[in-house]
Amino acid sequence: MSKKNFLLILFLIINISFLSSCKKDESSDQEATPKRDLAEQYIAENDSIIEFMETHFYNYTDFENIGNNQTPELIIDTIAGDNINKTPISEQVKSIDIEVKDDDDNIVVHKLYYEVLREGSGDNPTAADSVFVSYKGMLFDNTVFDQRKYPIWLEAKNVVRGFQEFLPKIKRGDIKVNPNGTYDFLNFGIAFAIFPSGLGYFNNGTVNIQPYSPLIFQVNLMTLNRTDHDNDSVLTIFEDLNGDHNFDNDDTDGDGFPNYLDSDDDGDEILTKDEYDVDGDGVPDDSDGDGTPDYLDND
Ligand SMILES: [Ca+2]
Ligand SMILES: [Ca+2]
Ligand SMILES: [Ca+2]
Ligand SMILES: [Ca+2]
To answer: Which domain holds residue 31?
Structure first.
């Protein structure tokens, strides 16, 4: 990658906002149409996803024996005509179950289907890390609603849930610095995922996406950074105490600042970094042995 490209990437980072899952203003036009029930909508969309995967194939031959710095683009087409003997996507994907809460806090398990096209050579991101990715987002009618051919930095916790949850399935690549100072990424992870709108925008469409649209994403993971947003020595992934990959609903001391943004998680006026692991053994300290580590225990 050249320095020019790197500047372009910086520019794109500043402008990125698309994948963020923030909601549209619901005050006006959306009042007329009540939001659909999450469980019912999931069943309908999962059926349509399965039917789509049984009747479509992707360009899997383009991903066989690819060079270590190549990134073929995912192309999906109907199994018909000259392509009648292609293997359907349904026979190639794996799935993961993801718990999504509806407005009444009922859990609706959502299946996300994915295929790893190249595993990658480094470590895997968590659902809290910063990732340097290129990607392509598509709808079932083959519309590309968003694409980044040059990688950009994204925070996994700020992208739609489906994107966030399948990122950890692949690994980052190696960085090769060239004699002229440019650099390339090699053997980076490549994968695609298909998931229902409960893991996407649900009733909130975007300019290019109708409400209740299942989404398809190809992601190419160049590299990553672990995050510790409040710099309190506890990685952000470990500040998600209830493990739902929502980092805003864990607030031990109830002061309005979630733990990942709170330098004193239990509000005892001792900074988390000064009581997390004082003896340096890699295990959070628990002086009174009550099972709650000191940094979350205000007595
Ligand atoms: Ca932290
Ligand atoms: Ca949480
Ligand atoms: Ca707090
Ligand atoms: Ca404290």
So the answer is: 3-225
